[in-house]
Design a protein that fits this description.
This protein is an alpha/beta fold. The chain is built from 17 helices and 21 strands. It folds into 2 domains: 62-92 and 324-490 and 525-562, Aminopeptidase; 111-311, Glucose Oxidase, domain 1 (3-Layer(bba) Sandwich). 31% of the residues lie in helices and 23% in strands. It has a 17-stranded mixed sheet that branches. Strands 7-8 form a two-stranded antiparallel sheet. Strand 3 (119-124) and strand 4 form a beta hairpin. Helix 3 crosses helix 11 (359-377), helix 11 (359-377) crosses helix 16 and helix 13 packs antiparallel against helix 16 (526-545). The protein is globular. The two termini are 40 Å apart.
């Protein structure tokens, strides 16, 4: 069903056209007698327009209670998209969406599980034991089917990983054809951080399970999972928010595995019960996971997974603006800046607050994106290559908007040379270092080193490999299309030696991430925010000015996986 609010918003944007020069005219080489500003001077002039007042103004608007958490597909998300488009227009970008508009409509199929229908039943020694919704298990709806039910024997497959290049396979010697597989999330911490990130992906695990004939998945919680998030945190919003999948041009839902006819995640007590007829205990399985050992085995238990799902066809827009490059030979190549505009909407009330505002995640990134665009537009001479700025939909629903754009870009796909992603920069204290996810995979590393040093940041390695952050934000959609990408976040080090940045960072993840108190009551260190914004501009500018495209490092794991 078409969203009326969105159509009205489009109409409002189309009439705001005065005050900008025509940016679609042919690019010509500069007059040899002219004296344009030097590259350095043009960049520095653009950086001067980045200021607190504008970023804070965007931030307050986008994270206000009136936005109702900016859930993908909601009228409030569409209002936020209109807001971004208005500012892209004000900045004098060129509309980069469909049919000359600012918007790329992303068709989706939304799904909600009928909670009363959700069922997990263990069959052991002729006895049936029904598990309890939220207390014992949670599950989502089927991507396409309204009614699914599957009964099958369960086989424990460790992490559900087959990684021959690591000489590791949880499937060696195990037959899972026609079986339900039970697996832990994540990957062994004995894997390098690249392999750990890739093999932790739920899509990667689903592909492997389907390739081996599995018909369903039961998710188990490792000790690391239990430490990261309580079962209450996992289960409290189960069934409250819709799942979403984008629809391809053939009308088929993306990333859908019809062979998997059921799925659930179970709490620790039912997991112990599930292993009660197996040759190993659940404690043995937990020990093996911690040690990075395979310990796969049939569990001697049959499980029935059943559910009913309601579906709705929706559309939600990516917002796209373009700044055309100044070089006649390079202007048809593009550096893409992204930030997801959506958050998780509303949910279970916490201390009387049911609006999950998403100030840091990711109103902050979206606000910096707008001002990044303003910075580039303020340069007296644009960089050689063109820059695309995209406020993305559906990141919280599974990188939906970025995955759709990466498959159906509004410019030629081979013209996209790099992605710089902005997502949840935690500027909670005076920041001394930056973590650059993706930097080490390509020639972007050198550019990033210079850019962050120019803003007095140190570069730090990933201090949280267990979070597999590199595959959890929108840059990964571009990586999977072979595009070198980077995603900066503030690190654990504060410039104030009395501040324990790590405890503040981890405290936010434990207590505030995807909670109602991610709002304007959170502290913001504004000097760090401005330095962070400028560092991202410097990266994009250097890439856009370089006569050479970024390239993947020889032998890089992700480059070899996706760029061949």
């Amino acid at each position: 069903m078409t969203n009326t609010t969105f159509l009205i918003a489009v109409g409002a944007i189309l009439i705001i056209t005065a005050g900008c020069e025509d940016t679609t005219s042919e690019i010509v080489a500069p007059d040899a007698t002219s004296t344009p500003p030097t590259t350095f001077a043009a960049l520095e002039e653009g950086l001067t327009v980045i200021n607190r007042d504008r970023i804070e103004g965007h931030l307050r608007y986008l994270s206000d209670d009136a936005m109702q958490g900016r859930m993908t597909g909601s009228p409030e998300y569409d209002e936020a998209a209109t807001y971004v488009a208005q500012h892209f227009e004000e900045i004098c970008l060129e509309a980069g969406g469909e049919d000359g508009s600012w918007f790329q409509a992303v068709p989706m199929l939304a799904r909600r599980i009928e909670v009363d229908s959700a069922s997990v039943v263990f069959h052991q020694d002729g006895v049936e034991k029904s598990q309890r919704w939220k207390e014992d298990f949670v599950m989502g709806g089927d991507v396409v089917r309204p009614d699914t039910s599957i009964s099958a024997e369960v086989v424990f497959v460790g992490f559900g990983i087959h990684a021959p290049e690591m000489s590791y396979s949880d499937y060696d010697g195990i037959d899972v054809d026609g079986k339900i597989v039970a697996m832990f999330g994540g990957a062994p911490d004995t894997f390098s951080h690249n392999e750990r990130a890739f093999y932790s992906s739920g899509l990667t695990k689903a592909e492997e399970a389907v390739a081996r004939g599995s018909v369903g998945v039961v998710g188990l919680r490792s000790r690391l999972d239990q430490k990261r998030y309580s079962w209450k945190r996992i289960s409290e919003n189960a069934g409250v928010r819709p799942g979403m999948s984008w629809i391809n041009l053939s009308g088929v839902a993306a990333n859908y595995f019809p062979e998997l006819q059921g799925g659930a995640t179970i709490n620790v007590p039912p997991a112990e019960e599930l292993f009660s007829r197996a040759p190993i205990s659940f404690e043995d399985a937990l020990d093996a996971a911690e040690a990075g050992r395979t310990l796969s085995t049939p569990l001697g238990t049959e499980v029935t997974l059943a559910r009913q799902t309601k579906h709705e066809s929706i559309s939600s827009p990516n917002v796209i603006g373009i700044l055309r490059g100044s070089d006649p030979e390079l202007a048809d190549e593009f550096v893409v800046f992204t930030a997801h505009l959506d958050h998780v909407g509303t949910g279970v009330s916490v201390d009387g607050d049911h609006i999950y505002n998403g100030m840091y995640d990711n109103a902050m990134g979206s606000s910096i994106l707008i001002e990044t665009a303003r910075s580039f537009a303020a340069m007296p001479v644009p960089p050689k290559r063109s820059i695309i700025f995209i406020a993305l939909t559906g990141e919280e629903r599974g990188l939906v908007g970025s995955d759709y754009y990466a498959h159906y870009p509004t410019v030629p796909s081979d013209a996209i040379i790099a992605n710089v992603n902005l997502d949840m920069p935690l500027l909670l204290y005076p920041v001394g270092d930056i973590i650059a996810f993706g930097a080490e995979h390509s020639s972007l590393q050198g550019v990033i080193d210079v850019a962050i040093a120019a803003e007095d940041f140190e570069l730090s390695p990933d201090p949280m490999p267990e979070e597999v952050i590199f595959v959890r934000s929108d840059q990964y959609s571009f990586v999977k299309q072979g595009v070198p990408s980077v995603f900066l976040v503030p690190g654990f080090t504060s410039t104030d030696p009395t501040i324990d940045g790590e405890s503040i960072w981890r405290g936010f993840l434990s207590n505030d991430y995807h909670q109602p108190n991610d709002d304007m009551t959170q502290p913001i260190d504004w000097p760090s925010a401005l330095r962070f914004a400028r560092a991202n501009v410097r990266i994009g500018y250097a890439v856009a000015e370089d006569t050479q495209r970024p390239v993947w490092n020889v032998g890089d794991f992700f480059g070899d996986k996706f760029a061949q």
